[in-house]
Amino acid sequence: MTIDTEHWNRRLAELAEKHDVPGATLGVLLDEEVSESAYGVLNARTGVETTTDSLFQIGSVSKVWTTTLVMQLVDEGKLQLDAPLVEVLPELRLSDPGVTAKVTMRHLLTHTSGIDGDVFTDTGRGDDCLEKYAAALADAAQNHPLEATWSYCNSGFSLAGRVVEKLTGGTWDAAVRERLVAPLGLTHTVTLPEEALLHRAAVGHVTHDGKQTVAPVWGIPRSAGPAGSIVSTVADLLKFARMHLDNGADVLSAASAAAMAEHQVELPDKHLLGDSWGLGWERAGWDGHRVIGHDGNTIGQAAFLRILPEKRLAVALLTNGGNGAKLYEELFREIFAELADVPVPHPLSPPSTPVDIDPAPYVGVYERASIRQEVSVGENGPVMRVSVTGAMAELLQEEPTDYPMVAVAPDLFVCQDPETGNWIPATFYQLPTGEKYVHFGARATPLCAS
Length: 450
Description:
The structure is a single chain. With 450 residues, the protein is of the alpha+beta class. It has two domains: 23-346, DD-peptidase/beta-lactamase superfamily (Beta-lactamase), CATH 3.40.710; 360-449, Beta Barrel (Lipocalin). It has helices at 5-18, 62-75, 97-102, 105-109, 129-136, 154-168, 172-184, 193-196, 225-228, 234-245, 254-261, 324-340, 390-396, and strands spanning 23-30, 33-43, 48-49, 56-57, 205-208, 211-214, 231-232, 265-266, 276-277, 282-286, 289-297, 302-308, 313-319, 364-368, 371-378, 381-388, 401-409, 412-416, 423-430, 436-440, 443-449. The strands form four sheets. It has a nine-stranded antiparallel sheet with strand order 3-2-1-13-12-11-10-9-8, sandwiched between helices. Helix 5 crosses helix 6 (154-168). The longest helix has 17 residues, at 324-340. The mean pLDDT is 96.
């Protein structure tokens, strides 16, 4: 089977326009064939056209790149996944001394460290930004006990990036360039804004009160680089995916490439991202077919990468605003059906027949760094008010958002985003030790007051 590029050019344009996406690029890899498409503008203010060689922020897809760097160090015998990090980073200090002594690289790569995951402290633009960031984690809260649950953790990947620096003797940015970009022959992949300026680079667009505008900030702090600051094209992203399909090629050992895709931990919420996590990769079961991938979200930009190893199929989508999630959902559903005969599951949504669940047991305030979630019951039913706090509040300047909640099953609701209409699952659960949490937006947030 060959890829009908003209058809996917047309479908990208039609669906991007439908979902108010200003600009997007699409890349499809099927065995050895690659197809690229582009749509729209990189910047609504300037009207610069999107081309297939345009750079977009891939956001948290960067975490898989950082994991690949880590696994190279494992291959070289410089790091053990299950050894305490303090063996290679003796200066590490976390808020919980017990976690400091026991936390491992595997905990970081599988989001099970419990370190509060959304600490976006800006430690400057210097080459010592990750060293300073790692030191500042001494003040970060312990969101949950070590290994007690799974919660998406950006902070853990910044810390992993610092370990990469310690063991390579240079910056994380240099490690990306020297250990991934150069060996893979990537010509349009960078990590710093001054590097992105040398290319056609997208800016993000945000929507408030139904109006879409250019994002007030282009990128995230350099200290968050290992968690989400790689900027790339769909072609380069697919070269990275091909390397993993080729069992690491000359970049990674076959054993390490396989370990990254293997099951490591189950997810408390199996409806948003997938059913389980590997090392860096998210894992999903699509009608019995194992898919790996990752999403990325920065300020007004969103990225999506999915790989179906059994068919040697990889699909990448990069967007700069609008409802990128809906574009991904519809476009990938068509692509995987056409090229692999594999159905993409529909997102969880309200049941056709209302489910009678008493919301009272879930009422309360759930809070962690950067986010406060207040569940209450109003005239029209339960509502989750989400407020951005701390450094992220200063960066994003967003007002609190109210998400109407609809029961799906005991302990499971879907919450509707008022801007996009998208439904986001909210799973309420307890740890074996009794602490109550809500899992929303891929994060576990503890109950602080009921």
